[in-house]
Design a protein that fits this description.
The structure is a single chain. This protein is of the alpha/beta class. The protein is 43% helix and 20% strand. The protein has 3 domains: 157 residues, HUPs (Rossmann fold, 3-Layer(aba) Sandwich), CATH 3.40.50.620; 131 residues, Argininosuccinate synthetase, chain A, domain 2; 30 residues, Up-down Bundle (Single alpha-helices involved in coiled-coils or other helix-helix interfaces). Strands 3-2-1-4-5 form a 5-stranded parallel sheet, sandwiched between helices. A 5-stranded antiparallel sheet has the order 10-9-8-13-14, with helices on one face. A 4-stranded antiparallel sheet has the order 6-7-12-11. The longest helix has 20 residues. The mean pLDDT is 94. Pfam families: Arginosuc_syn_C, Arginosuc_synth. Pathway: Amino-acid biosynthesis; L-arginine biosynthesis; L-arginine from L-ornithine and carbamoyl phosphate: step 2/3.
Length: 398
């Protein structure tokens, strides 16, 4: 029986050429798998037909937008996930979604190998291969661009030689990856980190300097899950999509940073995540009202580690699963409303309310009606500072 390779297929030049390239290099049949995580672009059926026209023996397409929002974006929102305190894991979240479909297709079609179009210097090769090995340790992985030196020039020549139905002339100056949670842009003139991004870089967000009326939105959460906007019920996907439009119209969610890649290099990246940043900002604020102090302090440590694990491609790891359990438990009381103003590139919280609130007006107020017994503070401070006081006496005596 001829061996089969499942290929992560986008419909573009590189992965279309990969179909025939893999067949020539390995002698295997290629099954193309395209996964829609809200990246927009061509119709899935058009992509499926192109894969078959380029030589795939089978082609599968999956509309995974709801799955991506519910099973991957939502955990990131509940984790307030920001790699290096800034990046909302736009690309990192989509990779395990795609991996799951690739592995399912490999099992369905009896494939022994999974292929992807990543280079040898990025994070995605790790995310694909570490994810695949976690779900199916028996599967092998290949990356034609990395393993067989499939450069763009070679890809264009192969395409023209074989007469593949792919446009080879249009070449964006940037490398772009996008999905419903956001958009990542790199390379081109952005590789000089002194160069500022121009407006042409952005697609999900408008220029925040353009004068416009502010937009006020109320986001409702139940146990950390966004369930309504301005009182109207929404799914997680709808919450992201609607806030992409509303926050994006005000330039919210633009990020320009130099990040630490897993492979050891620093890379300049420009991101847009209007819906993601708005939801994470609102979720963080609701937690500040509903989560007990010591739990909140520890959760911030968990959030950083969770973000690093996902960025590093360890979505399916035992530690990531264990941290998910902690985050779900910590989200038990994160229910209520956050009022937010979207304007001038910022999502600013202006109001909070919750039946699970730990904020006690009578304890917090400095006006009449204050129920806080200030006489307790003197003894508390004596005890709280005692160990440092004893150590200071010792140190001063030496």
């Amino acid at each position: 029986m001829t061996e089969r390779v499942v290929l992560a297929y986008s419909g573009g030049l590189d992965t279309s050429v990969c179909i025939g390239w893999i067949a020539e290099e390995t002698g295997a049949e290629v099954v193309a798998v395209a996964v829609d995580v809200g990246q927009g672009g061509e119709d899935l059926d058009v992509i499926r037909k192109r894969a078959l026209a380029c030589g795939a023996v089978e082609a599968e397409v999956a509309d995974a937008k709801e799955e991506f929002a519910d099973e991957y974006c939502l955990p990131a929102i509940k984790a307030n996930a920001l790699y290096m305190d800034r990046y909302p894991l736009v690309s990192a979240l989509s990779r395990p979604t795609i991996v799951k479909h690739l592995v399912d297709a490999a099992h369905k079609h009896g494939a022994t190998t999974v292929a992807h179009g990543c280079t040898g210097k990025g994070n995605d090769q790790v995310r694909f291969e570490a994810g695949i090995s976690s779900l199916a340790p028996d599967l092998k992985c290949i990356a034609p661009v990395r393993d067989y030196a499939m450069t763009r020039d070679k890809a264009i020549a192969f395409c023209e030689d074989k007469g593949l139905p792919i446009a080879t002339s249009k070449k964006s100056p940037y490398s772009i990856d996008q999905n419903v949670f956001g958009r990542a842009v790199e390379t081109g003139f952005l590789e000089d980190i002194w160069n500022g991004p121009i407006e042409d870089v952005y697609e999900y967000t408008e220029n925040p300097a353009t004068p416009r009326e502010a937009d006020e939105v109320i986001i409702t959460f139940e146990k950390g899950v966004p369930v309504a906007l301005d009182g109207k019920p929404v799914s997680v996907l709808q919450a992201i999509q609607q806030l992409n439009d509303r926050a994006g119209a005000h330039g919210v969610g633009r990020i320009d940073m130099v990040e630490d890649r897993l492979v050891g290099i620093k890379s300049r990246e420009v991101y847009e995540s209007p819906g993601g940043i708005a939801l994470i900002t609102a979720h963080q604020e609701l937690e500040s009202v509903t989560v007990e102090r010591e739990l909140a302090r520890f959760k911030r440590q968990v959030e950083q580690r969770w973000s690093e694990l996902v960025y590093d491609g360890l979505w399916f790891s035992p530690l990531k699963r264990a941290l998910d359990g902690f985050i779900d438990e910590a989200s038990e009381h994160v229910s209520g409303d956050i009022r937010m103003t979207l304007h001038g590139g910022r999502a600013v919280v202006t109001g909070r309310r919750s039946q699970q609130s730990l904020y006690d007006f009578n304890l917090a107020t400095y006006d009449s009606g204050d129920t806080f017994d200030q006489s307790m503070s003197k003894g508390f401070i004596e005890l709280f500072g005692m160990s440092s006081k004893i150590a200071a006496k010792r140190d001063l005596a030496q």
